[in-house]
Amino acid sequence: MLDVVAQSVISGLINGLIYAMVALGLSVIYGVMDLINFAHGEFVMLAMYFTFWIVSFSGLDQTVAFLPALPIFFLVGVLIYYGMLNRTMGTPLSQIALMLGVAMVIRSFVQIAGGTAPKGLPPSFIFGVLNIGSLAISYSRVATAVVSLVLLIIVHLFLTKTYTGLSMLAASDDRTAAYLMGINVKRIYALAFGLGLALVTIPAAFLMTYQHADPSSYLRFGLLSWCIVALAGLGRISGIIPAAIIVGIAESLVVTFVAPEAHSLPIYLLFILVIWLKPKGLFGRK
Amino acid sequence: MKPRQFVPAFIVFVLIIALIPVFVGFNEYFILLATVVLIYGVITTAWNVMGGIAGQLDLGATAYLGIGAYVAGNMLIWWNITPWIGMFVGAIIAAGFASAIGYVMFRYGVKEIWYALSTLGLVEVLRVIFMLWKEVGGPLEKYLPRSKTDPFYYMSFGSYIPYFYIALIFLLITFLVNYRLRYSKIGYSMLALGSNEDAAESLGIDTRRTKLKGLFIYSFIVGAFGGFYACFCSFIHPNTDFNMNFALEIAVLGIVGGLGTYYGPLLAASILVSLKEYLRAVFGTIVLGIYPAIFGLAIILIILFKPEGLSSILKNVYIKLRKGGGTKHGRQQHS
Amino acid sequence: MGGNNILETKEIVKRFGGIVALNNVNIGIEKGRITGLIGPNGAGKTTLLNVISGFLKPDHGKVIFKGKDITGLLPHKICELGLARTFQIVKPFLNFTVEESLLIGTLKKRSGREAQELINNVLEYFELDELRSKLCRELNVTQLKELELARAMATEPELLLLDEPGAGLNPKETSRFMRMIRDINRKKKITILIVEHVMPIIMGLCETVYVLHYGEIIARGTPRCISKNEQVINAYLGEKW
Ligand SMILES: Nc1ncnc2c1ncn2[C@@H]1O[C@H](COP(=O)(O)OP(=O)(O)OP(=O)(O)O)[C@@H](O)[C@H]1O
Ligand SMILES: [Mg+2]
To answer: For this UniProt entry, which segments traverse the membrane (chain A) (predicted)?
Structure first.
């Protein structure tokens, strides 16, 4: 019994670390722009398809397939900001509707370009299985978890140590103050949105080392990310890791002890409870 | 303060809709299409009470729709009770559930985007619960009993025409509720709340209660409509009834239609849902999955180029018509 | 403090995370008078107004209004009891007309003809008659500030809390505002607590002034007295008024 619990927890922990990276882009956008990107899940899915296509056509390994996708996603983000979001700043409802529109377009695109069948890739150069007792975890998942940690640390350092990163945080704290300090808020927002989308490509590429992409992948990754951001509180990078780990472990325990179909239940219940009782997040400070 | 000039326009409008089956020569396909438009119209117009007038971005329409569908559906399956009663019971349970949840949320100050996300999460939570809860739901479609001899009792008709008219009656009621509300004391409180919560609160408006009232009215109508929806689909299934995308579509139609007007949501539903169903019919077989893209694009274009919503087009036309008729300019509407 | 106070705060403490925004604040507002509250940026003035009007719950302490403990009551309840406020940053109902904005204030207590009469009176009083069917989004900031005051008046308050009504106004508008505020106090017999940075306003209107500094009341007295108080001058050293 204890063994089963321990295995479930370890598996959940690894998943949680991976989820942290999936939610990162959403968190950056929310933290800086105060905007919930309703198309986040769709962008994750799109990036997974991108990885699939890049790997299929070029024979690159998944683990580096994000390199061509990253600048494209960044550019798309900047364009979406200047083309749409910038014109609807201050009307959050319109922004939500806009992003839902974008989400629908992406879903369509994925279906038209990729069909409805799931897309999987042959193993990357990382393969094999790590055995912990009777628990078997593939090395690709472990590697993904490690990459996630590294990426989170890099983004955290970027936000707290570089001038651009600090301007982003300043813009998120107070728009007028940021203006006064001579920060071009629009450019910062465009950058943040671009960054938020670009950050989706890395987890997507690594997810493709052990997962399929299909036209409904967006559902899972969208809500999952919102839950983590809600738990973490106001776009705090440092809060993402514990939040994601809680989500991962809760999910894993329910899958083991209740039913696999119920895997999303603990996440949403946790999410709803946290929103109700601690709207600033479990790990939010302000 | 009621703009009475809207009443005649409204009657003409309803008559035109009521005659749709005649216009399309009782073509079942077009009537089905019109019924789907009405279904969206009813839910979006009900949503408008909470989302448009009271300004609370609710993404949980199908949570209440699903509860209503399951209550009425199961009452029919288990006890052979007619959906006409089931609808009413469903409405009460849906509204009771919504109010209980709403009470906690408003009590703890859940608002704005967090309200939106938690109502959306609620739909998914209910979907999973009903999936697992074998006694009432389960992963298999539960078909409603039908009867050739007494279709009215079972609300199971061989043609879409009766469904069309039932939905139309729902739309009428919902529309009137919106209209009445919009120019009543509660309506003004809701509008003020939606416009600026702090200011409303400082002027003596009990914002928690106002939100609860909005949520109650909205979930009651949608809950009742759930019973109809179950009969229209002829089965109940968690994925059909507790559908997140459906809930999102409702909110988007409401926003695109123009918040806080009582006719905007219906306008958006008529235009966009017809467009969507038309695209599905035309392109669905040629290019799989193209219609959501066009639908999505339409939404983006409307938001970018008509940010006040589709209703503003209608309003402008109306004002021009009145000016053309030489009468004094109409009172400004809230957009 | 005497028994003539319409409002008293008792040992109010309010913290935000690590920041102590209000520390043991005791003030008394005498009925029928205009009381001032001054202090440098971030002193906690707005926070105190928020605590009094129910927008924030204090961590400790009591707010007594007309002899009744109103601590922790919701803002709308407090408004009903006869306490109205304005906001430092105006909070208009953008899609409402001026007249409808006023209507919101009357909803709780009046209806029908009575409400309309009240609205007409307020419109006339604030010389907003020509603007009555203008949408708030078409008004400028000065007009919005006036409307905010008018809106608060439509709730028929006994005590009015004003958060920096003079901020951003030119001298001419400021003197008009001062006249209006004095008028409200004298003719309508409404007690006023005014938070202000603009010293001439405080000097010209108030009989008693409280000075808040880092969340603590450091002085209380007549405006003349206060402006000579050494501690106050120190607190404001480097401030530009
Ligand atoms: N909601 C809040 N959350 C966290 N901190 C807050 C909050 N509101 C105010 N503060 C902090 O409390 C302190 C007092 O702020 P307050 O707004 O009351 O000052 P003020 O005297 O009104 O200043 P000003 O003259 O600039 O209006 C400040 O340090 C401010 O940062
Ligand atoms: Mg202040």
So the answer is: 12-31, 43-60, 66-84, 96-117, 137-159, 188-211, 265-283
